[in-house]
Amino acid sequence: MKKFFLSLLCLGLITMSCSNDDNDPVVEEEEIENPEEEEETVEVDIEVQNFFWQTLNLYYFWQGDVPDLADDRFDTQTAYEEYLAENDDPVALLENKLLFSEDRFTFYSDDYTELVNSSAGISKSNGLQFGLGLISGTEDVFGFVEYIVKDSDASGKDIKRGDLFIGVDGQTLNLDNYIELLFGNNDTYTLNMADIVDGGISPSDKKVTLTKTEGLIENPIHVNTVITSGDKKIGYLMYNQFVSGSEDNLNSVFADFIAQGVNELVLDLRYNPGGRGSTAAVLASLIKGTNTNDLLFKTIYNAKLQAEFDSSLTDNYFVSTTGTADGNSGAALNTLNLNKVYIIATEASASASELVMVGLEPYIDVVHIGGTTVGKNQGSVLFVDDPEGGNVYDPERVDNINPNVQWGLQPIISRVENSAGFSDYVDGLIPDIELSEDVTNLGVLGDANEPLLARAIQEINGNGARRNFDVILPANVVSSSKLYNPRNTTLLLNNSVPVAKIPVSEKK
Question: Which residues form the Peptidase S41 N-terminal domain (predicted)?
Answer without folding.
Answer: 47-107
